[in-house]
Amino acid sequence: MQSEFITKNRYKLFTVGAIGTFMATLDGSILNVALPTISSDLNCSVDQIAWTAVAYSLTLISLMLIFGIWIDKKGYFFAYRFGYSFFLIGSALCALSTNLPMLLFSRVVQAIGTAMFAGIGPGMVTTVFGLKEKGKGIGLMVMMVSAGFMVGPPLGGFLLNYFSWQSIFVINLPIGIVGMLMTVRYFRKMPPPEGNRKVNILSALAISTSLVSFTFCLSFINDYAFTDIRIWGLAVVSLISFVLFLRNESNPKRAIIGIEIFKNRQFTSSIGAMMFMFIGLSGISILVPFYLEEIRHYEPSQVGLFLIILPIMMFIFAPLSGRLSDKIGYRILTVIGLLIQIAGYFMLAELGVDSTKIFIIGCFILLGIGTGIFNTPNSSALMGSVTDKYRAVTSSILGTTRNIGMSIGVALTTALFAHFQSVNATIGDENIAFVKSFSTVIYISIGITAVALLFSLVRGNRKGNSEEK
């Protein structure tokens, strides 16, 4: 039941969360444009500089579920105040970084803040707008995600043309301060959390350890033999931690959300579809700027204009898809979105050393439309599959799943790309070797996205306005 305060101020409350979401995606999209510049300045390879994204995602994965439980007890005011504080500190440290280890540490500090407020966005939106309009609310939040991605590339290109790469982190500071001030003004008046659900933190620690160990294991495969203790040791730690998680989840007194929820087809298919979609998409976002700058020799400002196309399409189609999902359900929209995305991948796989601008733009248009159509109904389906008392932790599960996909995608894609580049080194021409390796990785991403399509095909298709619990 929504309180009178929430009903009267829902758009103001939404704005606080939207600023945090915008700031997090702005930071990520600016960083992607700057990666070649940072890589050159710090004398790092593609797979080394990719750790600026992987370290960020791993921190999110390890903390989101823990913070989700914490927010159940502390409330949204505490969450956003904590989140903005750490993100601002981390951004300042990134701007002061002079080497890769310092930058990685600073990105971890940033991620601690993001883990607190970014993962609770869908839960907050569902609380503010109610279940009947959650598709609309989540669609508006996805618009802010898209806005961050839209502003980031051209802004990053502009800053890199006139300032050092450290300036891309300074831009977070004024935005974060505005978010903090609005948090104090509006969220402090929100009703406190109802009840005091006691959850054993062991489950959250177990699944976090399992996921982080697995991602590290995956990222090390290209550098070490399978018999290396770093590979099989991490695999064993991941497996044991996952078994411990399942054991705790089978006990209702200690569970985060309960293992029974995984029997809910709508819940499980939404998680599976989201994770595999992001595994397929995230690594590509790391490689594309290198293709545009190193193969096509575009300036950072021009690269930013290419990268802005995808979020523009998401900005347009995400809210439309969200509103439509409230009326017709989720399955058909998520399937259509993934099919369009796969079509974009097939075009992307055909990029060559002399592909036209129109062809490159067409690739990004299809990827953006497909991602925009898929994301909102899939997130809405997940949030609608649980009862009110699990909303905050389910929101964290949604965010954790997204970042699992992103971190695995980046680690897997960069490792595969490095492997295929070494295989194709005999070609002699570095540009042709790059394009051939890039194309092979894209086809693997198509196969991964096809798994997401299978999850969407088997999901339930209940309408958004019939899920009130």
Strand fraction: under 5%
Largest sheet: none
Query: How confident is the prediction overall: mean pLDDT?
Result: 79
At the first level of CATH, what is the class of the largest domain? Answer: Mainly Alpha
Treating each run of at least 4 consecutive H or I residues as one helix, how many helices?
Answer: 18
Q: How many strands appear in the DSSP assignment?
A: 0
List the helices and strands and how they pair.
Blueprint: H1 4-41, H2 46-49, H3 51-74, H4 76-96, H5 100-117, H6 121-129, H7 134-162, H8 167-170, H9 172-186, H10 202-220, H11 229-249, H12 265-295, H13 300-307, H14 309-328, H15 331-348, H16 357-383, H17 391-423, H18 430-458
Helix pairs in contact: 1-6, 1-7, 1-9, 1-12, 3-5, 3-10, 3-17, 4-5, 4-9, 6-7, 6-17, 7-13, 7-14, 7-16, 10-11, 10-17, 12-16, 12-17, 12-18, 14-16, 15-16, 15-18, 17-18
